[in-house]
What we know:
Number of strands: 12
CATH architecture of the largest domain: 3-Layer(aba) Sandwich
Largest sheet: 6 strands, parallel
Radius of gyration: 23 Å
CATH topology of the largest domain: Rossmann fold
CATH class of the largest domain: Alpha Beta
Number of helices: 13
Order of helices and strands: HHHHEHEHEHEEHEHEHEHEHEHEE
Number of domains: 3
Strand content: 5-15%
Strand order of the largest sheet: 2-1-3-4-5-11
Distance between the termini: 62 Å
Low-confidence stretches: none
Structural class: alpha/beta
Helix content: 40-55%
Amino acid sequence: MSRVKLKDIAEKAGVSLMTVSRVMNNDPKVGAKTRDKITAIAQELNYSPNVAARRLSSSKTFFIGIVCEYANANYVSKFLVGALKKCRTNGFHIVIDETAGETEKALSIVNDLIHVTRVDGLILLPPLADIPEVLSLLKKSNTPFVRIAPDIDLLASPYICMDDYQAAYDITEHLIKSGHKRIAHIIGSENQGVSRLRYQGYLDALRSHRLLMPPEYIEQGDFTYKSGLTAAEKLLSLKDIPDAIFAGNDEMAAAVISVAHKKHLDVPEQISVVGFDDTELARVVWPSITTIQQPIRDMAGLAISLLTEPANHRLDIASAVKRHVLPYQLCVRESSKQTVG
């Protein structure tokens, strides 16, 4: 099959070649109705832009960089799917790199993306969004960047998040209203601000219902399945084991369920388990995990939009809207008891 060209789209849409070209280059002068029509036809014909040609005729490279840690693979994978989908729609491509949490490696990766790959913008996932040296490098290079759930220097760039505190409060309250009195918590990674917010939401929900938990009901994890196993072993080996565990993410929650099975504890009849994020893992384990549906793919799509769409092209650090808060949803599944009353 021959490659679909812009003139093919123009002929089918009944518009000029220039109009199609403007749509493909995200020119804001084209009306929304015409833009939607041309975009739909391009997708119908499986049009794929010639990136090399676009780079020659533009100062842009049409590459967006994403830098992440792959420790929480389920979260990162879901984010990348959302980013790829939006990039495909907007005619951009993604360059992905990961670091093992080392500042020097992160600096090297970001520097290469800026000066070698020459990305048009960068997206930083946590905890990389909170490395001061990386933020300084990006500011000095004048590279547009968007952060996901940062915890420091919140005026440095536009960022996207959800209300982790309130979501944690809500899921803890779900456990309380289901009749649980002994609710343990596995905290997420120490170097991510969302861990603190989720822990605080848990504590405040307990306080609002006048519940006190012993110190041994709190375990430190790092958002990995392995850390969840270690924490669950400790919690489920206590003399007075909890009747519910709120793990800081789905991977740790899945680990708790595994340890409960090993100890012949029925989930949720003997112990309820809840997580956070609503990754694919939450739906494939047995029993499926009650969790907070974090809008990960929507976050990714918005991040790409902020960096690629005409209205957002020049992300002026001084004037851009900084905070974008997306909604979450409590997903009640089989791993927790239903709310009483």
